[in-house]
Automatic annotation (TrEMBL):
Residues 211-245 form a coiled coil. The keyword Coiled coil applies. InterPro entries: Nuclease_put_TT1808, Restrct_endonuc-II-like, Uma2. Residues 41-184 form the Putative restriction endonuclease domain. It comes from Desulfonema magnum. Keywords: Coiled coil, Endonuclease, Hydrolase, Nuclease. This is Restriction endonuclease domain-containing and DUF820. Pfam families: Uma2 (PF05685).
Length: 249
């Protein structure tokens, strides 16, 4: 067990001074003790790519300085009795937490923090569960403020915002976007992919997209330099031809 559980237990129960309960929390398994995933790949390569796109673009935009955690297709352990209760959201976001690598999300190791945003990618095998069982769990147990479902193939897209203990449906606007107040960003369908977008309309690129964009800018700059050099050489040749015919200016 790590010392982090002891620290969390102390902060959570300092006022009650319930040492026995604190020790009980501290003795629970951590991310080092619990399984992190089931080893089952996502339904299709497109589901996998969609998950990576949402996670990596947010990481590229916020970087390492902001306090947050975004993960996906990893276990989220939420029952204090141990390892019996867990889920594996396709994408989830927790705000105002330490920005560090994790094997899995263990709520009692994180100060009893649950995700602020969850995104499930619909498939034929998960559609019913995502719309019923998980929706009920995320609203009543997790109390996650925002829950979104998206089908990477049909582009079915719907949001649910928590009102008291139930979710209210939120539909995309005419530009196929829903604003996430938790993230301060839009979720928007662009070119058949679900993307994050800033309020002023800039789609968040991934690290790879940023790299490719930088390469394109570099290639464009190199092309301009080449063209300028060619024009200079052509001008020099023309000037030399003029000198041979008419002499020095």
């Amino acid at each position: 067990m790590t010392n982090i559980n002891a620290e969390i237990a102390e902060s959570l129960f300092e006022e009650d001074e319930d040492e026995e309960l604190s020790r009980s929390i501290a003795s629970l398994p951590t991310e080092d003790d619990l399984p992190c995933d089931d080893g089952v790949p996502m339904e299709t390569p497109r589901h996998r790519d969609q998950m990576i796109l949402l996670i990596e673009s947010l990481k590229a935009y916020w970087g390492e300085d902001k306090r947050y955690y975004v993960g996906g297709n990893m276990f989220l352990h939420y029952e204090l009795s141990g390892s019996k209760k867990f889920r594996g959201p396709d994408v989830f976001l927790v705000m105002d937490v330490e920005n560090r690598e994790r094997k899995s999300w263990v709520v009692w190791q994180e100060g009893m923090r649950f995700p602020d945003v969850i995104i499930e990618l619909l498939s034929d095998s998960t559609r019913t569960t995502d719309k019923t069982v998980k929706k009920e769990l995320y609203s009543r147990i997790f109390r996650t403020p925002e829950y979104y479902i998206y089908d990477p193939f049909s582009q079915e897209f719907e949001g649910f915002w928590l009102k008291k203990s139930t979710y209210e449906s939120v539909q995309p606007d005419k530009e196929k976007r829903i604003y996430s107040s938790e993230a301060g960003l839009y979720l928007v369908i662009k070119d058949d992919w679900l993307r994050w977008m800033t309020p002023d309309g800039h789609v968040l690129p991934t690290h790879l997209e940023l790299y490719r964009h930088s390469e394109q800018k570099l290639e464009s700059a190199e092309q301009k330099i080449y063209e300028e050099r060619q024009r200079a050489e052509d001008a020099e040749k023309l000037l030399e031809k003029y000198r041979r015919r008419y002499g020095e200016l």
